[in-house]
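Pasting as-is:
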Amino acid sequence: MKKKMPSAVVVLAVLGLAVAGYFAYSANRPSVPAPAAGAPAGNGAGSFALAVEVAPVKAVDFADDALAVGSLKSAESVMLRPETPGRVAAIAFRDGALVSKGSVLVSLDAGIQEAELLQAKANLALAESTHRRNLELLARKFISQQALESSAATLKVQEAAVSLAEARLAKTRIRVPFAGVVGLRNVSVGDYVKEGQDLVNIEDITTLRADFKLPENYIGRLNKGMALEVTSDALPGERFTAALEAVDPLVDQGGRSLSARARLDNRDGKLRPGMFVRVRLLFGERQAALMVPEQAIIPGAQPAVFKVVDGKANRVPVRLGVRRTAQVEIVDGLAAGDVVVTAGQLKLRDGMEVRAVGEGAPAAPAANAK
């Protein structure tokens, strides 16, 4: 009896391990969910339909315009520089003041130029007197014709010398080329300035020019004089009217863009040259334009979309128009009310069955009341 006890213990231990292993396997085995009520059994056609997001083609009215950014420039702008070196003798303006055309802003020391002018005038007076006397002497046949011609030539040389001296003297007076506002001067009385040195800038800000760029596809829609709207972040809520003045005939090869310029009235002085502005070109109003989300467009040499018809996705080539706030116009290829795929195109092939979700998906049928 004592010899049979170890065998019984071994048997019981083995049975215990087997039962424990079974329960452990049962507890960790993945459960298989039961099919939902009403779900199709097997692999029916509906189980292969690809779920895609869709949206309808909408006919909307919007303002046909183009937006761009640019900067303002003065109608006329110049940096005054002396054409001759010299010492500043007088400054006849205050920084930021209005100045009129022709007024003297800066005077250089002109002592030498004035002396040269007096000398040239004295030589001219002598040449005139000599030429008059030679005319009288020739009438009496006391001198030859050659002597008279020599005095006439001398007279012309002295007249030219006076004109030259006057021009040199005039260059010591820096005058205003056009009416405007002077900037901040860079010199003081007593400074010695060199030829071409910056003195002060002048800006005509009663009229400003707005320079901006547009994509080259607008080239056939830009006309001189068309209306523009200009706004500035520095003046929120204010809008300024401008007119298209010119378009550069050269298209930028780097960005394929057009450089354009508009002119706007600034007599109230609210705007300043150099300001950043936003430009809006008004082409008119568009009626019943067909618009789809941008993500519906399949890019390529020929843009296309997937149109959902009877539960199938059909690839349709389209012609695009303008873009507005994540929407793009369809000029040709679709009609209002068509449903297009907006997400999931990467897995689609022409003619595949799809299950539509999103704003353009058909509404679920209402349950029949019993």
